[in-house]
Amino acid sequence: MLFSSCGSDDPDIDDGDGTVNVSDGMYFSLKDGSPTSGTKLVSETVDDDNFTSQERSGFVGGYIYLAAGDYNLVQVVSKEVTQTLGGTATSETDSGSGCDYNTYTLVNAVVGGAAFNVAESGLHRVTYDQITGEIIILPIHFAEILGDATEGGWSTGQQLDGSVTSTGGSWSKEGVVIRAGQLKIRFDCRWNLDRRVDPNLGNDPSNGYNLFTNFGGAVDNLTPGNDQPNISWDESGTYTVTLNWTPKDGFTLDLNRTGDAPTITFDPNEYRFGVIGDATAGGWDSDQNLFHKVNEGVHTWYGVVTFAATGEYKFRTNDSWDFNLGGDLGNLSKGGGNIPSPGEGGWYITISTADEGETWSATVMDTGWGIIGTGSPTGSWDFDMNMTSEGFNGGISTYTLTGAFTTDSWKFRAGDDWALNLGGNVGALTIDGGDLTMSEAGNYKVTLLFNGEDFSAVVEKQ
Hints:
This protein is an all-beta fold and 462 residues long.
């Protein structure tokens, strides 16, 4: 797999007469130095609604090795530096990554501004947005391969470790099981870096931008962006996965098959659990979906289900009665009896198997959805404020909370636990999505909606 960088074959020298032998474009350049072809930024797209991309006027970026030092962004036209940009660099925190690396450098660039400091040598994801004047410098620490072709699915990546220098380098992992399916590459557990003014207002260009930090496409054309097709793979096996990088060639992915994949005895994709019954929003006609994760060999499906005061329910898979569970929650049985409603309200439900489907058990807790975060009414990431279950109508379950929010980050999570949490875009929330924010502090009513498959929210300032 190949992702070409923006390097050129131009010699990187100053002729001594003030000209530089690089092609026209925007470059990172060391203070009082000359731009080089390896630090050129190229035009890129940014995120749009529904996993698509959009053009953004004057938006350029790339993956560039930067040695620690002071830099300017310069524009080259006809072998001459025609504009120098700089400004004050600040360290910003972004919690959109699920890993530890959440800081990046932001420069509010102005023409003629002072050089800004890059503190950490290494490969960086860098962008410049002409509309806002922002320069983003995001250090890259490791890569991941993930997808339904991998053991961690789309929620848990296989981390590739390594390092790069100014001449190149790689990240690698042995013993990665890849099966027929789809996959992508991303960096530092991050799909995007969100620079929108108010994520609740979506991806209108006037609201800022959301830059990509992942690759999809095809085996012979590794390309950046959420909207790029997932990479298809059809040869199951155990692999040594290596992602290489050089300034000239960019990224290349090597999948070296070292053996057969372990025999599958239990495939969680064949058990897409839902809750169904006359005690639920969909009655006996449609399921309230649960969401799968695996931890240390225990497969668990999670969800919050709103129940009526009376009625019954069961667990079933794949919207079909071919495999269903009922009876005793602590020891569910195949085809077992209907389970009585636990009572009116929203309930946090798990169903688990630790022995690949030989036995099943479920838990039902009366703590449903809550809101947590420094921007939430609790003002803390340590404890939640519970949402109120408003019941269900027309197949839609509704949960509400009214309280004082700041402009700091917050999220939805279920059962006072991070196993099931929601974030990303308020209008189309995703499991494990990025943190949410309000554009301004104030008292808000937040309504969380679930139609049995998808989550969305409505935020109303009071």
